[in-house]
Design brief:
heterotetramer; A: five-stranded parallel sheet; two-stranded antiparallel sheet; B: alpha/beta; seven-stranded mixed sheet; five-stranded mixed sheet; 14 strands; 40% helix; globular; binds thiamine diphosphate; binds magnesium ion
């Protein structure tokens, strides 16, 4: 069951990225530059999609908030790229690139943002609050930190069942690291010695709150040792570094090393949500090295080291736009939910539903 | 000049900070130039940089720190970014703030602001009404202002009260509700308000549902049906006398609340009226709640999930026919 | 052979572990030779060392991990050391377990055991009855077994159900309640039980209060008053039909629960009966709750804080006089 | 108000320990061995009292649980001893020695355990759930970790009011360190830069649960850096070390250094509570160096280095027994609460009390 579901996801994924590259997604021994190129394409796709979502939002076609991962695509794609069939992925707010790389169909995103009844959340939940638990992509709740222990539990279950060589990866922001739930989740992961990778992105703000009011240690990586995790830092604007460090963490977790914490440093290159102009971010901040745009830098690398020619880059961009337009068009055609077509049951066991008042 | 429900909350906090240096505001993003996810503290940090403080994402510690500060004579106002996230602070609110006076004889005067209730597209985790969880436990006062004037005077009252107050402000009313000016004082805390007089039916409601109920009453008035609307203002303490007096006039009771159906304010009001005003009732008491599912994201579902003027009217008509 | 309520809970877990390798028990001190603060898992870790696991003091993560394991096909049983500490896990229970099926279509079959209710000398933080907090929110089933037989069959049912179950076991009944043997099956989940028949008055109760109510009924029987005692068994779903049928026979309703007075199960039962069975009532429905203060440590105070046979008798007499 | 209350506490304290030593309690510049001797006497008093409580419990004269600090007196006394008027103390389960050293009257303990209406909790709460918030001794709730942020808040208030040179000290067990509340409290203390000392005692068990199922790092002290605390370890069985390390931490906090974490290592020399025979503690554990009895070792030091003669030790023991017997006798004479004399109000604002049903 899980496997079929997973297969569907993977094949959907083929549809997103052209076959040759998609194949290498499965082939984890792909030469570095092929991995780099595939990662770049997922980043490009995520950026293209999120720019589209923003314009839809500005055009009043999306209800509720839009939360994008601009500037965090390199970290995020590395989170999704090294996961294999049977692995668990618990993405968070800014993980469009990782979700796609993991196999989330693009149309799920547009369906969820546009409230299509065919989407994974069927209009019941929106924006980034989506997932495919049956395909091992967990659906986050808003309460930050809560998904860490949930991911631990999925890995405990796999061990109970005697599965091997699996890992789980979950993402968090530096703000979310200050929640009690995060602490309990990290600690229990280490106590249970599950193959977990936690990727924390310090984008220097929790909504409008700067690091100085979030925590007081010099480097959040230093928390790893206190949990019994292995800890690493990475420049989140450098795709090569992200692939190496996060890829390495996934490999170590899979090999039975202790749980892994990777702390990436970036700047959030958008508002907290699209409703937020982020005017609280100083120009000085924007001059910092961690403010570099990871997508631009990756493209620059491709050009400078001639990994592909400019025409190919243009094709890729076209292809991304095409896929995004398709996904939007498809979702826009679809029916939205209607109250009288809902059964309004919060329980799967229908005969245990409580009836407060006879209607 | 016209002032919104949200501005009233900001004005109340500005006044509190100016008049009383024991007051400070503590919460996520309340400080700096930002002034909170809903701008309820906009500009206050500029005037009171030491007393309007951003916090980490740590609801339990935010309320814990407020409790400690209150023990030492301060009057903290905690802003939860959304009521929904107060689930993380619930232990400190119920088991620490709520028990401290009874256990030690020393009350902890904290005010916890909960931006509550549903708005379009907010979904399961940014829409909740949690007053019933807090009212169920001892030791807390739970306010649910339904008007701009009450939003202002009740918040000032909340900080003045020596006991812990959970102040549920409704996000839907933030911009929708306007008044010409702010009063110096309102009704005493714990006193319900007759929001509209009528002799055919009593609707008991609070917070945003008072506005929906008034709209429903308008519509029913066109049919010659006179509905009395009681605005509870605080769900704990709950002003049973005012409710009973109204039911004595009308003989019919409909309770309207936005929280989940099982238990909660509607059930409590009906239980009290059935118990203390049984003989006053000419028909079975009725209630309208949100549905018993998480709060939906899509507007089509959300507008059907919460009670609204339309289904209040329908329910009231049916009840008046009995 | 005689078996206690506590032993029934241990037997149910032993059977579940034996019959179904998807089941594991997760909680503080449940493992090793110790077997839990109340010994509800005594000996189980010896037989199933991999599936009876001690945890850190991390209620949020304990339930979070159970939710994750359930998503992957396991059937976790979480033991809270005391119900009172589930306030730390409340967010995972309400907002994660309770919403998951409705949001994603995948239910999370976890069972959270809450050692609930008051016992002598336990005080404010080791005595709470929290069923009303969990029943208020959507997506959860809340069980409150009142007998040894139900403690056994309902726990087995709880684990079989695909949806999350909060199983409230009463600490006062652990040793006080005995049965001769354990049944293979009980009433269906969600069905209330007529614990004693009578035609003068209906007492609706659950958990330990069912026992107090039965004792009260005994006493009243000596005066020739026939009290019918309805044991709800689950407070959500709540078996309105059985309650209404009983009130139809007696015309009088007294609800008895141990939780705090504002809202909660008693209010919900009275609201439903007043709404759906208004014409069945010959007198105002009454309720008996614990007092609206934290639960006292000293036995003199504790025994006055909770309802008991004595004041149930008094309340029933008064109600029968009306 | 606070001050008067504090003074009463201090004067009550004089009653507990003979004047000369009590004076040195205030005089923080007392020569080391005098400090050591005073500490020893508080430890002796605590041990004597708790042995008495245990016998009362065994005799069925105490309702509910009895939780003692046997083996942890050296750590605990050091927590109370360096605190001055205006400092905040938030003790936990095993802090009898520290409570007494801080100024909690002995009779408060017996009153609370015996449910006297004259006790600080008036029979409403029991055993270790006691305090004098007006005298800056906070009354713990059971939920572990919750008191850390509360202590932070008291210190923020003192800073708001412009007070100077104050500190707060709170205690926790290694088990309680795994709660989310503890994490949030530690982090917010560092963000607010309050003068807080957190003393964590690893007594190698949380109830019956050994360290291996509680956390997975090598040394809990390593968590300090991740919070921006200064961290220290100490042998909790060695009074001299406890006085130095905890005394030093209090001094540093008072001097404006970052918050301080001290992790002490001991073995719990009792059951979790007196209902618990602790049969799960292996003999091997009991052979470990950290299983040493801190009171015996302190007495040995006194004898070996001749700090006082044996007769004085005998007198001190007698004096401790006398004080304990007085405190018990006093509480036993006092009235216990009666339901009909209670007003059953959870609010101080009487006219805001809710009345569910008219009686
Ligand atoms: C427990 C909790 N409290 C508050 C919020 C509201 N909230 C949503 S996102 C956010 C900021 C998150 O910052 P960070 O974790 O750094 O992630 P980022 O947005 O920077 O990627 C806040 C406060 C929440 N989701 N959960
Ligand atoms: C949040 C929470 N969960 C569970 C408990 C029940 N409990 C009381 S003491 C205890 C063990 C505490 O261990 P530790 O923190 O190491 O302190 P110690 O008893 O060893 O001194 C537990 C689990 C509690 N008090 N609080
Ligand atoms: Mg951030
Ligand atoms: Mg311990």
């Amino acid at each position: 069951m899980l496997q079929t579901a997973q297969r569907t996801a993977k094949s959907k994924k083929k549809k997103d990225a052209p076959a040759p590259l998609a194949e290498t997604a499965a082939d984890k021994t792909a030469p570095p530059h092929e991995r780099f190129l595939e990662a770049f394409r997922w980043m490009l796709l995520a950026r293209t999609l999120e720019e589209k979502l923003v314009s839809l939002y500005r055009g009043g076609q999306i209800t509720g908030g839009v939360y994008i991962g601009k500037g965090q695509e390199a970290v995020s794609v590395a989170c999704g790229l090294f996961l294999e069939k049977g692995d668990i992925f618990a993405p968070l707010i800014r993980d469009q690139a990782g979700r796609s790389a993991f196999g989330e169909p693009l149309v799920d995103v547009t369906r969820t943002y546009l409230g299509s009844r065919l989407g994974p959340m069927r209009g019941r939940d929106g924006n980034i609050h989506r997932g495919h638990p049956r395909d091992n992509e967990l659906a986050m709740i808003s309460h930050l930190g809560a998904m860490v222990s949930v991911t631990v539990g999925t890995l405990m279950a796999k061990r109970f069942r005697g599965e091997k060589d699996f890992v789980g990866l979950t993402c968090i922001g530096e703000g979310g690291m200050q929640t009690g739930a995060f602490h309990e989740g990290m600690n229990i992961a280490a106590v249970e010695q599950v193959p977990l990778v936690v990727v924390a992105t310090n984008n220097h703000y929790a909504y409008s709150t700067p690091n100085a009011r979030e925590f007081a240690c010099d480097d959040l990586r230093e928390r790893a040792i206190g949990y019994g995790f292995e800890g690493y830092s990475v420049d989140g604007t450098d795709l090569t570094a992200c692939l190496n460090v996060i890829g390495g963490a996934v490999k170590r977790a899979r090999a039975g090393r202790p749980p892994q914490l990777v702390v990436a440093s970036v700047l959030r290159l958008s508002g907290h949500g699209e409703h937020d102009d982020a005017s609280y971010v100083s120009d000085e901040m924007k001059q910092q090295p961690f403010a570099r745009d990871c997508l631009k830098f990756a493209e620059q690398t491709i050009i400078e080291s001639n990994l592909v020619d400019r025409d190919t880059l243009v094709d890729w961009r076209k292809n991304a736009v095409m896929q995004v337009d398709e996904a939007v068009a498809a979702a826009q055609k679809e029916a939205v939910p209607e109250a009288d077509k809902e059964d309004w049951c919060a329980l799967s066991t229908r005969d245990l539903v409580d009836h407060v008042d006879e209607e | 000049m016209s002032i919104t429900y949200l501005e009233a909350i900001r004005e109340a906090q500005a006044k509190l900070l100016r008049d009383d240096d024991r007051v400070f505001i503590y919460g996520q993003d309340v400080g700096g130039a930002f002034g909170g996810a809903f701008k309820a503290t906009k500009g206050l940090a500029k005037e009171f940089p030491e007393r309007v403080l951003n916090t980490p994402i740590s609801e339990d510690a935010i309320v814990g720190a407020a409790i400690g500060a209150a023990m030492q004579g301060m009057r903290p106002i905690v802003e939860m970014q959304f009521a929904d996230f107060s689930s993380i602070a619930l232990n400190q609110i119920l088991n620490n703030a709520g028990t401290h006076y009874w256990r030690t004889g020393m009350p902890v005067p904290i005010t916890v602001r909960l931006p509550s209730g549903g708005t379009k597209g907010s979904g399961p985790f940014h829409s909740q009404s949690m007053e019933s969880l807090y009212a169920h436990y001892p030791g807390l006062i739970v306010m649910t202002p339904a008007t701009v004037e009450d939003a202002y005077t009740m918040l000032i009252e909340a900080v003045a009260i020596d006991d812990p107050v959970v102040y549920c402000e409704h996000k839907y009313l933030y911009y929708h509700l306007k008044a010409d000016k702010l009063p110096d004082k309102g009704l005493p805390t714990g006193r319900a308000r007759i929001a509209r007089e009528g002799r055919d039916l009593t609707i008991v409601s609070y917070s945003a549902m008072t506005q929906e109920s008034l709209a429903a009453a308008e519509e029913l008035a066109r049919e010659g049906l006179e509905v009395e609307v009681v605005d509870l203002r605080t769900v704990k303490p709950l002003d049973t006398d005012t409710v009973l007096a109204s039911v004595a006039r009308t003989g019919r009771l409909l309770c309207v609340g936005e929280s989940f159906p099982w238990g909660g304010t509607n059930a409590e009001v009906i239980a009290r009226v059935s118990n203390q005003g049984f003989h006053l009732l000419d028909a079975a008491p009725q209630r309208l709640n949100a549905k018993d599912t998480p709060i939906p994201y899509h507007p089509n579902l959300w507008s059907a999930h919460r009670p609204n003027a339309k289904n209040i009217v329908a329910k009231a008509r049916a009840l008046l026919r009995e």
